[in-house]
Amino acid sequence: MTARPVTFGLSLPNRALLFGGPITWDTLLAASERAESSGAFASVWVGDNLLSKPRLEAIVALSAIAARTRRVKLGTICLASFPLRNLILLATQWASLDVVSGGRAILAVCAGAPASKGPQFAAELAAMSIDSRERVPRLEEGIALLRRFWGPEPVTFDGAIHHYADVDVLPKPIQQLPPILLAVNPPRDADPAREERALRRVARLADGWQTDGVPPALFRDRWDRIREYAAEAGRAAAVTDASLHLMVNIDDDPEHARRESVAFLDQYYGAGAITAERLESWLAFGPPQAVIDTIGEFLDAGCTTPVLRFTSPDQLGQLERCIAEVLSAFNH
User: Fold this and answer.
1) Dihedral (Cα; 259, 262, 263, 267), 10-degree rounding
2) For labelling, which of 142, 241, 248, 261 has a CA lying 20 to 30 Å from the CA of 133?
C-alpha cells in the first residue's frame, strides 16, 4: 500500500466559548485564517456534542470557517452526536457544507458515549429518545445510508433502525463521496473481542480511523490491525487515513505547560475526567523540541494526520509558536 502523505490539522476548542474566558469565536476564526495562511496546516477541525458536553454546534461552526478560508479541509473531532441526529437532516446539512466550502468537508463520526458512562450521557440519550443499545446499529446503518443519500439514486432501505422509501436527498455534495472517518478508542484493558469488533468496524465501514489518548505503540498496533482487517475485507485501498487528536502546550517551562494543560482540560472536560495515564499519551508539552519528539513518535507509528489542539487560553500565541518552532521541523 502506498504511504499517505502526512498533513497537520488544527483542532479548535469550540466548547471553550461557553466558559466566558479569553477564547472567543473571533479568536477561533482568526486561528482558522492564520492556520490556512501559514501553509503549515491542511485542515481545521471542531468537536461535537449536544447536551452532554455542550459547545458551539459543529456544522454551523464549520460553515462559518468555510466562509473565511479557501484551502483547508474542514472536519469534526468527532461527530459524537451522530447516532442522535436525524439522518436525512444530517445528510442535507453535510452535503450543504461540502457545497459552500467547495468540496472540503471531512466527516469523522463515532457511536457517542453509552448511558452507563455517566448521568449526563444518560440524560442526553433520554432527551433525544434514543436507546443506548441502538448507538452502534445507528452508527453502522447511518454511515452506509449517508453514502447512498449522497449518490445519484433515490434510496429505499429497510433496516433495524432506519426505514426509507424512495428518498432523494438534495443537494448532493461536491465531492463524489465526502470522506467518512470512524473514531474508536477502546480502553487499553478492553476485552479483546470488543476491541477487535471496534477495529474491524473501522476497516469495514470507514475511509480512515480517528483516535486519541493512546501511546504510540498501541497506536501502531491498532492501525496495523485496521489495515490488516481492511485488506481481508478487500478495502485496503479505501482505508488510508490514521488521524490522531493530540493536545499540545508549547512552553519553555515544561511544568508550567503541564499545569496549564491540566487546568484547561479540567475545565473543558470536567475535573478529574482526564487521568494521569491518559494525559501521558494525550499531551505533547514543554519546549518545542519535546513537542516535536512526541509528534515524531506518532508519525513513526503510522499517523498520517496529527490534529493539534492547544491546551492554553492563549490560542493564537500557541499557534504562532507551533508554526514557527514545531511544524517547521516537519516541512522539509
Assistant:
1) 180
2) 241
